[in-house]
Amino acid sequence: MNTDVRRRSALVVGGTGIAGRALCRELVANGWPTTSLSRRKSAAPDGVTTLRADLTDPRSVEQALAGTAPTHVFITAWSRRPTEAENITVNAAMVRNVLDAAGRAGTLRHVALVTGLKHYLGPFEAYGTGATRDTPFHENEPRLDAPNFYYAQEDELWAAAERLGFAWSVHRSHTIIGYAVGNAMNMGQTLAAQAALCRAEGTPFVFPGNEVQWNGITDMTDAGLLARQMIWAATTENLPSQAYNAANGDVFRWRWMWPRIAELLGVEPEGYADRARPLEQQTAGKEDLWRRLAGREGLVEADLSRVASWWHTDSDLSRPVECFTDMSRSRGAGFTDYADTLASFAALFDTLRSEKVIPA
């Protein structure tokens, strides 16, 4: 690995999100000059220069990046829209706008793009239905015959790489465990908020998903591990430009994990029983309860919608197929990092307590 970082500079697109925050911390710890570009105003990790832009507006992105000359761009942001057609239009444009603006200086060496397992499962509109790939998922499997904004993002990345001459990597993460208030997809923080509401009401911690997820094999992705894989791919010499699955390396069943998470969060677990019990139904009308809880406990965020993403956790835990990945490609190329998923949850919950996102 090339260890000379003096002429490297990183641009993290979405640096205030669940993947971007962890990546910014990792880059700064390794001595990289690091800039975060985000559409919303939020504090970035220490040592990071922050820029703000509407990523869907090419002029806004161009103005924000004027005068910058990044050598490495890490794209961790996306924008959720009502339909997959809209997701494709908006998220492809975000990648295109960033790379058009960041490439003007002629300094780009590598661009890393975070996508996910919807590459194998299909879009949210048809999540895990119809034709899907068999588990474990492998990077060399052909695309599904369905519209998918991840495919559109990859196409924009490849077109820019051909035009500008940089290397690239795509990182297909599973559900990410990490810290970011206001993030659209954050299962660990969502489960912590669910448990806090259960403790406040004295009710059990009910598994929201279906029988397939309760009994099937799955895996997850620690945000720090994802960050390290992205930096590894961006800086290891002679790696081909290609996609890498990004998961912790262990697998589990929710029927094993659920009571252990409940113990970490101080609640009584209740597993799958006859039917799914989605969080959007379990937590309906609990916004005022959270607001009172936040006031009593001195929490930093009284808006429950910025702490928990019920819809996303419900989507993940209601898939009709088991879901885990093969990590042979990156392991064979030299990335052998590993994270224990239960330990990742425990570390996140400790962070959420110390940052006053959930009650102690």
Automatic annotation (TrEMBL):
CDD domains: 5beta-POR_like_SDR_a. It comes from the Bacteria. Residues 71-359 form the PRISE-like Rossmann-fold domain. InterPro entries: NAD(P)-bd_dom_sf (IPR036291), PRISE-like_Rossmann-fold (IPR055222). It holds the Pfam family PRISE. This is SDR family oxidoreductase. The lineage of its organism: Bacteria, Bacillati, Actinomycetota, Actinomycetes, Kitasatosporales.
